């Protein structure tokens, strides 16, 4: 008998991902404010940053959708 069914596991994974994102965002914002770094930098010309915030969400979405797709295709 599985410990957790698929919908519950996906909900838990989504909740943990959401909490990790919010905690990281708050920590970075607090740290930036506390250090007093008020200068704005243009990072749009950096390929590594652009690739990271394109690929990381894509990988997360694929990781969350893959179990659902497998369950759908196995029927």
In terms of topology, how is this protein built?
Elements: H1 6-35, H2 47-73
3D structure, described in words:
It is a single chain. By secondary structure, this protein is mostly helical. It has a domain at 48-75. Helices cover 76% and strands 0% of the residues. It has helices at 6-35, 47-73. The longest helix has 30 residues, at 6-35. The model has no long low-confidence stretch (mean pLDDT 79).
Global mean pLDDT: 79
Largest sheet: none
Low-confidence stretches: none
Category by helix and strand content: mainly alpha
Instruction: Name the shape in a single word.
Output: elongated
SSE ordering: HH
Helix content: over 70%
The termini sit apart by 20 Å
Strand content bin: under 5%
- What is the gyration radius calculated from CA atoms? 18 Å
| Discrete helix count | 2
Q: Please give the number of β-strands.
A: 0
Short summary of the structure?
Helices cover 76% and strands 0% of the residues. The chain is mainly α.
Characteristic key phrases:
single chain; 75 residues; mainly alpha; 2 helices; 76% helix; elongated
């Amino acid at each position: 008998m599985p410990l957790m069914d698929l919908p519950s596991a996906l909900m838990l994974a989504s909740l943990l991902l959401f909490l990790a994102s919010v905690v990281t965002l708050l920590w970075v914002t607090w740290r930036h404010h506390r250090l007093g770094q008020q200068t704005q930098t243009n990072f749009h010309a950096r390929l590594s940053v652009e690739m990271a915030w394109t690929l990381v969400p894509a990988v997360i979405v694929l990781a969350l959708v893959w179990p659902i797709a497998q369950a759908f295709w196995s029927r």
